[in-house]
Amino acid sequence: MTPLFAVTLDVGGSHVTAARVDLQARRVTGDVARLDVPHTAGLDDVLASWVQAALEVAGTGPVTHLGFAVPGPFNLRGGVSLMTHKFAALHGVPLREALAARLRGTPLAGVPVCFGNDADLFALGEWWAGAGEQQDLIGVTLGTGLGSGFVRDGQVVTDGPGVPEDGELWSTPFRDGLAEAYASGAAVTRLAQAMLGETLSARDLAALEPERAAPVWAAFGGTLADLLSPWVAAFGARRVVLGGNVSRAFPHFALSLQAGLPSGTLAVQSRHFELAALLGAARLSVPVPDQPV
């Protein structure tokens, strides 16, 4: 079978990351390109950086599509950014056409362009080629905020039973506020302040003596379980896959999280972290039958 590749990009607020993904091996091949481009940059600078990153990893051989993992709000089908809080220069621009114009005369000329939400593609990448092991799952990213993606039978699900609006958990009601206030780096810091009297990041807390940090991590894991359990049960998720910087401390809160989840659901740490969304973007248009992992 002729090898097939996708070129995928993950658009962050300060940089863009690009990779070439082998669709049959389900892995990133070659070097990953990372270019600094602030979300405050002008349209030409943003698009030039995206194109440069894509061409750096394009390599040789057939490329099925360019897959972009983008933050929201974004009209994925139309390829139009609806963001106003960042990437203001992209607002309302038909990006699929704008990229096609800039790719003329390059090895990626005429390659279809696909867009997906970055949190959804994190979850999809872990389902397809990572810790999700192709089980129905909820992907959760814990960092400065709370990201989420719901995947059933290899498809991102953004509505229906057990799924919050647009698949976004961060804004769902929880306790006396919103879920994000209880499932993020800031939530860990607040717990540490309340229980230890110190202002600590998740990384700082993970470096403390285990006996001092353990009660904070147990409280965080228990809270996360309380937040996720109703969604896990309603969606029927068999895996909860955790990514983002806070999840690098997963061994510290895994037991309390697992203890609070419904029976039959396993909480696991991301296998790919920053690469997961790039793998998910490759899955946006897989033209060959899935092969056994």
From TrEMBL:
SUPFAM superfamilies: Actin-like ATPase domain. Pfam families: ROK (PF00480). InterPro entries: ATPase_NBD, ROK. It comes from the Bacteria. This is Glucokinase. It comes from Deinococcus aquiradiocola.
